[in-house]
Design goal:
single chain, 151 residues, mainly alpha, 6 helices, Prepilin type IV endopeptidase peptidase domain-containing protein, transmembrane helix, Prepilin_IV_endopep_pep, membrane
Length: 151
């Protein structure tokens, strides 16, 4: 079985969790990250074929892209762990594709919310603090990276 199908199923499971509950379970991020590192140590390549140096670079970039957002409260820790786990499964190219497509998806989602509810900023009954499910947007980016064949 092609491992991309497993990674895609994992990304969809996290996307659904984040969209529904705005929460990404640690078992689905840290557990997969640990398993990915075991595969990397035993096989010398990531599950999707990335070299160890490529995976290390991908993990560093994933942290550089997400930790500042988490520290400032603009991004959930689950989102950061989700991208880190994907970095351990894949490699640098896939992480960059994921973050770029995920960011564009989040922007489109935010615009969709603004167009659909243009008065939400002025309506006292609407909770504007509920965050957008960025993990779901990252999952869209991951699926794009898997289709593009990035490692």
């Amino acid at each position: 079985m092609d491992p991309r199908w497993l990674v895609a199923a994992w990304a969809v499971a996290i996307a659904l969790s984040d969209a529904r509950w705005r929460r990404i379970p640690n078992a689905l991020t840290l557990g997969v990250c640990a398993a990915a590192l075991v595969v990397l140590a035993l096989d010398g390549r990531s599950l999707l074929g990335g070299e160890p140096w490529n995976v290390a670079g991908a993990a560093a970039i994933a942290l550089l892209l997400t930790v500042p957002g988490w520290l400032t409260g603009r991004l959930g820790a689950g989102d950061a762990k989700f991208l880190l786990a994907f970095a351990c499964l894949s490699g640098l190219e896939a992480v960059l594709i994921t973050f770029a497509v995920g960011g564009l998806t989040a922007g489109a989602l935010a615009l969709g919310v603004l167009v659909r509810v243009p008065t939400f900023l002025y309506h006292p009954g609407v909770d504007c603090r509920r965050p957008l499910p960025f993990g779901t947007c990252l999952a869209v980016g991951m699926l794009a990276a898997l289709v593009a064949g990035g490692r």
